[in-house]
Every structure is written in structure tokens, then in C-alpha cells.
């Protein structure tokens, strides 16, 4: 009997999650989410998870005001992110539909692209999480902590 590889687990961290380690760590919630993001990234580095990177990441990360933070997030995405083949023409109508349902354009693009790749969608943005609960996207969504619990990451 041969060894069978487990299925690839795709995770799509939005920029809010990717930037969580740069936020003020005085609040317990932010520290917990930072630890969860770092745990997820550790599993990406060890190839247990695949971090999906999209053009929406590029646009949003390029707009980060702090140059050191921007450069570190860009380097992280280059080093451990995976750019899957995306059909942006197909994603656009879904993003536009999400915008009509009151998602911001960048959030709509992130969610549409995560749906297209079948990735689990991770965000720290409470407003976006509320919108996801309302819209019920075709993929799993939640906080970094909830994702770690779901995937039993250690």
C-alpha cells in the first residue's frame, strides 16, 4: 500500500490578517489573532497549507502607508505565497455582485477570488465577517483563531 498525499488545503488571508502582526499588541484579541496568523504562516512554510495570493493582495498591499510594513508583507507574499491560475474575467461579475450587496470593492475582489480558488477565507475585519455571515459565500470564512481551531493547527 502506497503513501497517499493529503489534499492541498488552500487558505486565503486578506490583508487585514496579513498586517495583524504590525498592529498594537496591547489588546488580547489582537495578540491572539497575531499568534493565529503566525501559526497559519508557519504551516504554510512547512507546506501543510497553501497561501493563495491574488492581484487584490498586490493592490491593497501596495497602498500600505508604512514602507517597512509594506515591504515585509510584499516579501512574505513573494516568499511563501502561491499564485494560482485565476480567471479575473470570471471573478469580476461575482465581485460586482458582492459590491451591490454592500461589500467594498477590495473586499469583494478578495472574496470573489477566494471563492474561485475554493480557498478558506480568513479575515480579522469584523465588518467583513458580518457581511460574509449575511451573504453566505460558497466557501468557509472566519477569523484566524477560528481557522486554527477548524484545522486543528498546533
Strand elements, count: 5
Overall CATH class: Alpha Beta
Query: Which class best fits the helix and strand makeup?
Result: alpha/beta
Q: CATH homologous superfamily - what is it?
A: 5'-nuclease
Mind summarizing the main beta sheet? 5 strands, parallel
Low-confidence stretches: none
Give, in order, the helices and strands: EHHEHHEHHEHEH
CATH topology heading: Rossmann fold
How far the N terminus sits from the C terminus, by CA atoms, comes to 29 Å
Helical content class? 55-70%
Average residue pLDDT: 96
Could you say how many structural domains there are in total? 1
Task: List descriptors.
alpha/beta, Rossmann fold, 8 helices, 5-stranded parallel β-sheet, 154 residues
Explained architecture:
The chain has 154 residues and is α/β, with parallel strands linked by helices. The chain has a single domain, classed as 3-Layer(aba) Sandwich (Rossmann fold). It is 57% helix and 9% strand. A five-stranded parallel beta sheet has the order 3-2-1-4-5, sandwiched between helices. Strand 4 (120-122), helix 7 and strand 5 (141-142) form a beta-alpha-beta unit. It starts with 9 loop residues before the first strand and ends with a helix.
List the helices and strands and how they pair.
Blueprint: E1 10-13, H1 15-18, H2 28-45, E2 50-52, H3 55-62, H4 67-80, E3 81-82, H5 88-100, H6 105-117, E4 120-122, H7 126-135, E5 141-142, H8 144-151
Parallel strand pairs: 1-2, 1-4, 2-3, 4-5
In short:
The protein is 57% helix and 9% strand. It is of the alpha/beta class.
Amino acid at each position: 500500500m502506497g503513501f497517499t498525499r493529503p489534499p492541498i488545503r488552500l487558505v486565503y488571508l486578506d490583508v487585514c490578517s496579513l498586517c495583524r502582526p504590525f498592529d498594537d499588541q496591547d489588546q488580547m484579541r489582537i495578540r491572539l489573532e497575531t499568534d493565529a496568523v503566525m501559526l497559519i504562516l508557519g504551516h504554510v512554510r512547512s507546506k501543510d497549507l497553501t497561501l493563495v495570493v491574488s492581484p487584490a493582495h498586490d493592490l491593497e498591499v501596495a497602498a500600505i502607508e508604512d514602507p517597512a510594513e509594506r515591504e515585509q508583507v510584499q516579501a512574505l507574499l513573494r516568499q511563501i505565497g502561491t499564485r494560482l491560475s485565476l480567471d479575473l474575467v470570471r471573478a469580476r461579475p461575482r465581485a460586482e455582485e458582492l459590491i451591490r450587496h454592500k461589500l467594498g470593492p477590495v473586499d469583494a475582489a478578495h472574496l470573489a477570488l477566494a471563492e474561485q480558488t475554493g480557498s478558506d477565507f480568513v479575515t480579522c475585519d469584523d465588518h467583513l465577517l458580518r457581511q460574509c455571515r449575511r451573504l453566505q459565500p460558497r466557501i468557509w470564512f472566519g477569523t484566524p483563531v477560528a481557522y486554527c481551531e477548524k484545522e486543528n493547527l498546533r
